[in-house]
Amino acid sequence: MKEPRISEIKSAAAKLRRAIEQSECSSDELFHFLETFPRVSCKPASLLLGKYLVEECDCQPIEFVSAQGWSRDGGISRSHFWLEYEGLIIDITADQYSEIEEPVIVTADRTWHNQFTHQTRTPYSEIMDPETLTPKVPATYEHILKALDSECV
Hints:
Layout: H1 3-22, H2 42-57, E1 62-70, E2 76-85, E3 88-91, E4 105-107, E5 118-123, H3 124-127, H4 136-149
Helix pairs in contact: 1-2, 1-4, 2-4
């Protein structure tokens, strides 16, 4: 992928992240897990980011990746959720983990994400199916779009 496209995607992801961070919503307007963003909010944040990247940057096809890391005793040690597009990992919540400092990751380097050994990929069209999607996604997305339109994002 060409550098200008990577920069465009990283800029869009950073803009959406800032909008989430600056957004003030009541619990009725927000996904519950965005209240602790970026901690414990990788799935709802990735859903919003995926919708934004498809609609605003024409990133298609995009995949949602759900992943788990396993402990030595065979239990799940931690889980994570991010996006992938044309070989790029796009992640706006990896900094919830102590070893990550970057608030926005857009990279082809899979080193950190490959620690999550069980990865399931779901196409955008499947996960964002209006028939099965929680109404919180479109409502939260509209609220975030308003924050994006504000001059402080």
